[in-house]
Design goal:
193 residues; alpha+beta; Cysteine Rich Protein; two-stranded antiparallel ribbon; two-stranded antiparallel sheet; 10 strands; 16% helix
């Protein structure tokens, strides 16, 4: 049957896909309603699709079908084992923990690589990406991103730093700014009288 001015054929239903309803994935065209996971039938978009050859899946189903296999993958907490089940039953849980000398000497690199986080200089707690504000070259919680002297909440336009600590512009000027007559220093005013 001829393709009268239409688009490509849908990879799922093999009917004509017109440009207004076309979604492309792996060089193939789909109707919006046909762009669904082959396993669970959930609707997909460019952020949730995972393709394998001519098949499309949501990321969850793709991981179950084509992801790594073994104990610990998709089954809660655990560790990957390539040995048959029960072969290492004589090993106890504390043997699997790395010794302090075996840990990575650069905590920032390992925390970024494995989903950990940096520490806030103000409260020393973990700072995760959703709550991170950078100041003085360090990550801070949004709630900890305050002037060290007056406690005023800071923004990128109102923050100044000295020796790794954060200050609002007013406190910074009072404590670290220029001193002398006409610059707001009361001690200099008293000396002149």
């Amino acid at each position: 049957m001829p393709n009268w001015g239409g688009g490509a054929k849908c990879a799922a239903c093999e009917k004509t896909v017109y440009h207004a309803e076309e979604i492309q994935c792996n060089g193939r065209s789909f109707h919006k309603i046909c762009f669904i996971c082959m396993s669970c039938r959930k609707g997909l978009d460019s952020t949730t699709v995972a393709a394998h050859e001519s098949e499309i899946y949501c990321k969850s189903c793709y991981g179950k079908k084509y992801g790594p296999k073994g104990y610990g993958y998709g089954q809660g907490a655990g560790a990957l084992s390539s040995d048959p089940p029960g072969q290492n039953a004589h090993l106890q849980a504390h043997d699997s923990k790395p010794s302090p000398s075996a840990t990575n000497s650069n905590p920032n690199k390992s925390s970024q690589k494995f989903g950990g986080s940096d520490r806030c200089p103000r409260c020393s707690k973990a700072v995760y990406a959703a709550e991170k504000v950078m100041g003085a070259g360090k990550p801070w919680h949004k709630t900890c991103f305050r002037c060290a002297l007056c406690g005023k909440s800071l923004e990128s336009t109102t923050v100044t730093d000295k020796d790794g600590e954060l200050y609002c512009k007013v406190c910074y000027a009072k404590n670290f700014g220029p001193k002398g007559f006409g610059l707001g220093n009361a001690a200099m005013l008293e000396e002149r009288e």
